[in-house]
Amino acid sequence: MNPQPRFTVRLRFTKHGKIRFTSHRDVARLFERALRKLRLPISYSEGFSPRPRIAFGLALSVAHESDAEYLDIDLVTPIDLEDLPSRLCAALPDGLTVVAAGHIEPGSASLQEAITSCRWLIEVLDGSLSDVTAAVSALLAVEELPLERQRKGKTTVVDVRPCVLELEVMGPTDDGVQLAALLSNESVSLRPSEFIGALSEVAPTSTLREGRVRRTHQFTTSDGLRSEPLLAPVPSPTTETTDAQAVTAAMAGVGGGQ
User: Fold this and answer.
1) Rg, Å, the chain Cα set
2) Which of 130, 159, 166, 248 pairs as cysteine with 182 (C-beta 3.0–4.6 A)?
3) How many angstroms separate the CA atoms of 155 and 252, rounded?
């Protein structure tokens, strides 16, 4: 039997508000339900229990928000993508918003393989602005940052200092201090919760805690240049933006060509 033809569509979506407490697996179920509702010509796996050929990017931890999540869908026939984001938004719960859709060339690397780094806005709790600023300076000054990890019942120690590609204090929030961080996702990755633990180790007086966390970008790398897997539409100059959106836009270009 000849294999089904595949036409891959990549979606970019955001995850904001109360839906941030929904797990990665439940988000996948919500998208599968929305795609079935739209009756898209989705390609299915073979075997006794066929599954839709849907592939998400890097998982987002529960309670974290995001401006840049990605999903690849294999279709058996091409479709018009112009109104696909709005149609999906109508079929998804509040807080999940599809902002862009685009065709992907056959043979392109999967999202899991292609993403090399992520940019985060991370709120740090239980530390003053001066303490957190000092901790950031101390972390950037060290050459090694050992971190214990449990894997298959065994404890290993890895150096995660190379994972901190960029780090900047953005200023105080209502509850803490906000940082902007670019963290690697290559051979050794560093999650925001682990980053806060590492930062707490070098903090002068405080044990720091994680507050609100938002992933603002995911990047691929080609010839030393970072780019996003699928760009979001540029807001109209007449569109009102929130302070958080303004920070995200300002951070988009920081280090983007390094």
Assistant:
1) 20
2) 166
3) 36
Contacts of 31 by beta carbon, 8 Å cutoff, 6+ apart: 54, 71, 92, 96
Tell me the whole-structure pTM to 2 decimals: 0.86
Task: Kindly provide the residue ranges of all beta strands, DSSP E only, lying in the chain, ordered along the sequence.
Answer: 7-15, 54-56, 65-75, 96-104, 115-125, 146-151, 154-159, 164-172, 177-184, 209-222, 225-227
Give the helix ranges, DSSP H, for the chain: 24-38, 84-91, 111-114, 129-141, 192-202, 243-252
Average pLDDT over the chain, rounded to whole?
88
The position carrying tokens 């995001």 is 66
User: 200: number of CA atoms within 13 Å, CB side?
Assistant: 15
Tell me the pLDDT tens digit for each residue of 126-149.
Answer: 999 999 999 999 999 999 999 888
Residue ranges and CATH numbers for the domains of the chain are: 7-108 (3.30.70.580), 116-252 (3.30.70.3190)
The CA-based angle 87-90-91, given to 5 degrees, is 90
Distance CA(127)–CA(125), nearest Å, equals 6
The string of DSSP letters for 14-31 reads EE-GGGGGS-HHHHHHHH
Place of tokens 């957190």: 132
